[in-house]
TrEMBL record:
UniProt name for this protein: Family with sequence similarity 180 member A
Record has Signal as a keyword: yes
Pfam families according to UniProt: FAM180
Keyword Signal attached: yes
Keywords assigned by UniProt, alphabetized: Signal
Residues annotated as signal peptide: 1-21
Length: 168
């Protein structure tokens, strides 16, 4: 009996990996479907699962969360908030899923512009975090041309989120 459960579990696991691989090319955030850090639970990570998680995200943002570049992905000044277990998932999302390059974000914008259906809650969460990252980058740029490119991208992200929130 136990062998059957393990066999069933293995089949389910392998089929989910195959589905993730097939979905990888169509996904708005394909990096979310790659195994990160050797943990199956981090395939397609999400932070928001409840109203309490939404309140926690708001609190983390108010505390001054900074989504940074490659070397240190997430900075949360409040050490107590930063030490929470659920915030570790947020770190994985900000480090491994949210696009950081302007070209990647613009590619995401093109995909968002083609969508006719509302975003799934996971993609909505990631789009909002991409919006947060873009606004933080924009505030740090001094080159006028780069500033204009990031501003255009930020406006498009705001429109995508607004479009998703507006009932059709």
């Amino acid at each position: 009996m136990a062998r059957r459960w393990w066999a069933l579990l293995a089949v389910v696991y392998l089929s989910s990996l195959q589905a993730a691989a097939r979905h990888h090319r169509k996904a708005l955030y394909p990096s979310a479907y790659l195994i990160k850090r050797g943990a199956y639970s981090l395939i397609n990570p999400t932070f928001l699962h409840s109203e309490e998680d939404a309140k926690l995200l708001f609190e983390v943002l108010l505390a001054g969360m900074q989504i940074q570049g490659e070397e240190r992905p997430l900075l949360i000044p409040d050490e107590e908030l930063a030490s929470l277990r659920s915030v570790k998932t947020l770190e994985v999302i900000c480090e491994d899923v949210v696009p950081k390059k302007l070209s990647d974000i613009r590619r995401l914008m093109a995909k968002l512009a083609q969508r006719r259906r509302p975003l799934g809650w996971q993609d909505f969460e990631r789009t909002v975090l991409t919006l947060v990252y873009s606004s933080q980058i924009l505030s740090q740029i001094s080159n006028q041309h780069q500033k204009e490119l990031w501003m255009e991208t930020l406006v498009q992200l705001v429109r995508a989120v607004q479009r998703d929130l507006t009932p059709s």
